[in-house]
Amino acid sequence: MKCKAFDTNAALAEQVVSELSALKPHSRVLIPSGSTPRWVYDLLATTKVAEHLTFFALDEWVNVPSESDGSCLSMINQDFVHKCAHPVQLIHFDPYASTAQNIAHYNAALNGAEFDYVILGVGMNGHIGLNEPGVSFAEDYLQTKLDDVTINVASHKYFSGDVTLSEGITVGLGKIIKASKVIVIINHEDKKGIYQEIVDGDAHHTEIPAIYIKQFPHVNYYITKNLQG
Questions:
Q1: Can you name the CATH fold of 2-192?
Q2: Which DSSP string corresponds to 163-188?
Q3: Membrane-spanning regions, if any (predicted)?
């Protein structure tokens, strides 16, 4: 397991933005929503780095309007896209389209290529995107039934009103591990438990996505030092 610890979220963000700035123009970058990447997005929005990259949203809730405050698209727009002084190209899932239509949309945008750089967070249950515990790790894309932990956390954390969450569409682990570089950010004190599970877990005998992907040499865990010890 490749892990790099940073003193602060700001230092972690500087590392990620530095790596993004080194990418070739038009590189394809897969990004998550939620609270984990906000430090990265805040810093990235102050630069011109994003102007020359193509971003793809990692996942989306199914049958939840994109304009809802807790939709993945809404969060990425609020935390990143709308903060940038220049246009940002963002490919995203349609929560009301069929799985086949969403897959075709992403594959057309990738045009036969793979992701050059992937930024991930980790859920309290070890999910990656909406690859929930127990899903197939071989799929490039999949529509999943949401785990109860995911539903409970997301409903209270991201949405200001009542919402019914049951399924999600996500880029699958089969596609993620084909990327040139993958970073998994864990930077919240409340993720200390799942971080330790990842460290101790057996990547070859697990149903937890965040444990499974640690076996790949191009997957890097970027953590803040408050998770250690």
A1: Rossmann fold (3.40.50)
A2: ----EEEEE-HHHHTTSSEEEEEE--
A3: none
